[in-house]
Amino acid sequence: MYILIISLSLITSTSSQRGLTWWRELKSGHDGWPKTSLALDQHLDPASQKPLVKRKLLPHSILSEAGIVTELLSRDYGRALHLRTDIPEDTETVVDIDAAEEEEEVLVLPQSSSQLESNAANQMLEPAKVLGVTRGTAILLPLAGRNVTNSITFSTSDLLIHIFRVIASDYNIILLHDDHPETQNAVSRLLKEESRSRLIIVNISDRKLADEVWMGHYNDGMDVHILFYSEVATVTTFADGMPHPVWAPDHLLLINAGGGDENATALLRHKAFSHSPYLTLLQEDRRIQSRTIYEILVYEAFRKGNKVIKRGSIRSPNDSTLTFDVLFPDRFESFHGHYFHLSSWVDDFPYMVKGKTLEDTHGMCIYMLDDIAGRLNFTYKVYELPEDHLWGDLHNGSWRGMIGEVWRGERDFCINVMSLVEDRFQAVDFSVPYFLDSDSFVIRNPDAPPRWPSIIFPFSWVTWIAVGITLLLVPIFFLCLQTLKGAVTFDSSSLFMEVTKALLWLDFSPTTSHLSIRIFVGNWWLMAMILSISYTGNLIAFITIPAKAHKMKTLQEVAESDLTPVMIDYGNYMPSVMKQSGDKTLMKLGDKLQFLPNNDYQAGFDMVEAGTAGFMEGTEYFRYMVILFKAWNTYFLEQAFFPSYVGWIYPKKTAWKHKFDKYLQRFVEAGLPTYWRNKLAEDFRREMNLTRVKSEDTSRPLNILDLQGVFIVYAFCLAISIVVGLVEIVLCR
Q1: CA–CA dist 574, 548 (Å, integer)
Q2: What is the spatial distance between Cα 154 and Cα 281, in angstroms, rounded to a whole number?
Q3: Class of domain 156-327
Q4: Which residue has the higher pLDDT, 86 or 328?
C-alpha cells in the first residue's frame, strides 16, 4: 500500500506523554504494598431491583491522609463503585452502581466469596453499606512514600495511531491536519509506524484547498475523514472557506489535540460539518486531572436544549472495545418530536390523495411517512400546493415549484412523485427509489370498422387473387387434358361451372376412365376442400367476432398522425426534455405539444373525446384521472415513455436522509408500494360505484350488420346479371 501526502512538511518530533501507565500489577498485588479489606453486605433496592450503594462519603482531605487511591483494573474485577472526593464530610447519598459516571473516581470490588476481617479501613468508611454486590474485597493502596501513579495517560499520537488501526482495514482514510507542532509530531509518528497503509494527508492551513475539485470525490461510505487539529481557529477558517456543499464526507471524525477547548464543541454546529451523517468529536476531558480520558461527543441536531451529547469515552491507547461503531455512533437515533414542513401537492394519486380535509390526506407516501415518523419520533405538516402552483422545473437558472422550495431550504423535504433525472439529482438529494413510473398518452378509441367487408375478410387480397387465377387456369388445363385424351366430357361453356362446384361442395362427377384425368380431378377436389373449409371457418369467426379497429401503439404513430399532443402546464420537466431530445420522434412531439391552462383536465379530455388530441400525463396519475372524468372511450398508448424510478427529495447533502432510506428500502423489499397502489385504486373504484366487469355469455343471434356483406355481394351480382340479361336481349334482337 502507498501513502499519498498532500501537505506541508511535517515536523518530526514526538509529543510528550504524561507518563501514566496501566496498573497491571494490581491484579496480582505488588510486593511491599499493604492491603486492607472491607466487609461487604448484599442487598437490592426493592423498588427498582437495581444494586445500590449507600455509604458515608469522605472529603478529599481524609482520603489523602489515608493515602487511598483506587483504579478500575479490568473486567475480571466486577462492578465499580463511586468514591467521590468533592463532597463535605458526614454527607450520605444513594448511588446507582450501573449508572456510574466515567469521569468519577471508582473503587474496584473483585468478586470473591471469601470472608475478610475488618480493620482500620473499615472503621474509617463506616457505616458504609455496599448493596447488590457479592461479598468481596476492596483493594486500598497507600501512596505515602511511594513513587506510584494512580491512573492511565496517553498522548494524542497514541490515540491517532489506535484509531487508524481500527479504521484502516476496512475504509479509506483522509487525514486532514493543521500546522500546530503537536499535530505535526503526531502525524509524523503515524507515518513512521503505519508506513505501508494507504493514507491521504491534507494540510488544511493551505488557503487554496477550497479550490481543489478532488475534495468532493471522497464523500461516500467507504471513506473516513479524520480532522486532526490543535487550533480551533484554523479549523473554523478551513470550514468557512469550503464551498457548499462540495465537501460532505459520510464519516467525519474531529480529534481535538489541543485539549478541552470549550470552542471545539462549536465545530459540531458548523454548517460545513453538519452535512456529514456520522460526525464525532474526540477531545480530552480536562475536568479529570488524574488520568487521560477522551470523550466521544456527537451533535444531535433535533434534540431540544443542549445538542452536544457524550456517547462514550476512550480510556486507553489500545482499548479493545473501541470499534468503528463506537467511534461513529448514530446521532439521529431519534428526531425528538421535530416538526417537519413538507413541500407537497396533495392531488397526486396514488402517492398523495387528499381527503375531506388536508389533515385527512392519505396515499402510498403518507402511509410510508407515518410509519417512519412513529419510529423516528417526529411530526409533519403537508400543504395543498406549492406557492407558485408548479411541480418543479428549471427556469432561468432557478428551480420552481416543489423542487424549488426544497432547493432553497424553504421546506424540509418532499414526498410527492419525483422522477430521478440528472438535473434534479444535481440540485437536490434523492431517496432510494421506491417505485417505477412513466409518462403516457391517452387517446380516444378508434371507431369500429364497417361490418360489410366481413365476407372478404377471411382471405387477404393476395389469397383472393390466387384463388381467382386458379379458377381460370383449372378449367383451361382440364379442357386441354380432355382434348389430348379424346375424352371430351364437358364442353368449354360448362367446364367453368363444373370446376366451381367443387369449391361449393356440389356434385361433380366426370365420367371418364382415363387415369390422368381422374388424378387431375382428385387433386382439384383436395385443393377446393381446403380452400372452402378455410374460408368458411374464418367467415364464421369474422361474423360472430367483429374485427377490431386499429389502435396506435407507438409514439411514432402518434407523431405522424393528425393528433395534437396536449398536457397541463404545471411546471413539469417533460416539455423541455422532449424538445431537446436527440430522438426525432420525441422532438416532433415536443414541437407539436400544446399546453392546457389553469389545470383544465376537462378541456383535455374533451379534446380526446373529439378525436383531435392525445393527452399526455404521468401514467399512475392518469389511471386515476380517467376514472374521475369517466373517460371510458379512451385507451393508454401501449408505448409509455421516459420510464424512471421515483423517490423523495431533500436539500442537498441532508445528513439524516439515510435514516429514511433504510425504511423506504424495507417497504420496497416487502412489496408494500405496489400493494398500496392497487388497494388505493380498488378503493377509488368502489367510491365511484364502479365494479369489475364479469365475463358474460357472448352468444347472440346474427343481425343484419353481421350479414350485410352477403346482401351487398348478392345485390351486386344481381345487378350484373340484370345488366348482362339486358345486353343479351338487345343483342338477340
Answers
A1: 33
A2: 18
A3: alpha beta
A4: 328
Radius of gyration of the chain from Cα atoms? 45
Find out whether 534 and 499 touch, Cβ atoms under 8 Å. no
Contact criterion met (CB below 8 Å) for 376 and 334: yes
Q: Report the distance separating Cα 731 and Cα 709, nearest Å.
A: 33
Is residue 574 a contact partner of residue 567, using CB atoms and an 8 Å limit? Answer: yes
Q: Fill in the amino acid letter for 418.
A: M
What's the whole-model pTM score?
Answer: 0.69
The 10s digit of each residue's pLDDT in 407-417 is: 999 999 999 99
CA distances from 538 to 126, 456, 461, 500, 531 (A): 111, 10, 15, 20, 11
Q: At what angle do helices 515-544 and 461-485 cross, to 10 degrees?
A: 160
Sheet with 52-57, edge to edge strand ranges: 91-96, 52-57, 129-130
Q: Which of 345, 286, 338, 283 is nearest to 307 (CA)?
A: 338
Residues 6+ apart with CB under 8 A from 567: 574, 575, 593, 595, 596, 604, 615, 616, 617
Query: How many Å apart are CA 279 and CA 298, to the nearest integer?
Result: 6
287-311: average pLDDT: 88
* Dihedral Cα 291, 296, 300, 304, nearest 10 deg: -20
Which of 116-130, 193-207, 474-488 is predicted with the least confidence, judged by mean pLDDT?
A: 116-130
> Which pLDDT tens digit goes with each residue over 624-658?
999 999 999 999 999 998 898 999 999 999 999 99
Report domain extents, the chain.
Answer: 24-130, 156-327, 458-537
DSSP code of 304?
S
> In whole angstroms, what is the distance from residue 675 CA to residue 662 CA?
19
Report pLDDT digits (tens) over 220-252. Answer: 788 999 999 998 989 998 888 887 777 889 999
